[in-house]
Amino acid sequence: MSEMDMRYWPRLGIYVTRADAEAYISKVGGQHTYADDDLEEFVPAPSHNQASLTVEVEHLFANPALEAPAPSDEILQMLAVIEFEEQRVPTIKKWIKEEGMDKQDAKDRFQAEMDIMVRDALGLPEETEQEIEYREKAAAIAAEREAQLAAESDAESEEE
Questions:
Q1: Which of 17, 138, 142, 160 is exposed most, by the fewest CB atoms within 10 A?
Q2: Cβ(7)–Cβ(66) below 8 Å
Q3: Residues in CB range of 83: below 8 A, 6 or more apart
Q4: Structure pTM?
Q5: How far from chain centre, in Å, is Cα 113?
């Protein structure tokens, strides 16, 4: 078996090489601590047993490879959201060029479509009137702040 043999590790839900699995074990196995704010000291953190993870990996690579399960509908929806987000810049540029949209309108449209995709993937209801009102108020406040900063910048440049 070569070092590049890969196995699906159900614990992580991904394909790993033996080196990847051993690196994972070295990072999560063993003794770890975290800062407890209430006690103001470092306390031991629960962690995976390094020996049991090593046995699990040995078993994983000693047996025939498992096939990864097919992604669930929820995972497929989230992958579509990720793909859409990765295409953000080209999509916005396309809308500006092909549909003659204003830059901010294209950005807003992208965000609206992204919001719908995420809501669908998470099984959330459509935006309520209160959420719409809040979003619009937040946008107005941001625009007002941006205008205020631009005015201050202009005033400073005139003084110079």
A1: 160
A2: yes
A3: none
A4: 0.50
A5: 17
Cβ within 8 Å of residue 44, ≥6 positions away: 31, 32, 33
Q: What residue type is 125 in one-letter code?
A: P
Phi, psi of 108 (to 5 degrees): -65, -40
Q: Which helix (H) or strand (E) holds 151?
A: helix 129-159
The Cβ of residue 142 has, within 10 Å, a number of other Cβ atoms equal to 10
Per-residue pLDDT of the chain (160 residues; tens, 9 = 90+): 444 688 888 888 888 899 999 998 888 876 667 788 888 888 877 777 888 889 999 999 998 887 888 888 888 888 899 999 999 999 999 999 999 999 999 999 999 999 899 888 888 888 888 988 988 898 899 889 999 998 888 877 777 6
Q: How far apart are CA 31 and CA 36, in angstroms?
A: 16
d(CA 19, CA 99): 49
Any idea what DSSP says for residue 33?
E
Measured CA to CA, the distance from residue 143 to residue 39 in angstroms comes to 44
Greatest alpha-carbon pair distance for the chain in Å reads: 76
DSSP run (H or E) holding 43:
strand 41-45
Count CB atoms within 10 A of the CB of residue 108. Answer: 14
Helix boundaries (H) for 34-72: 50-62
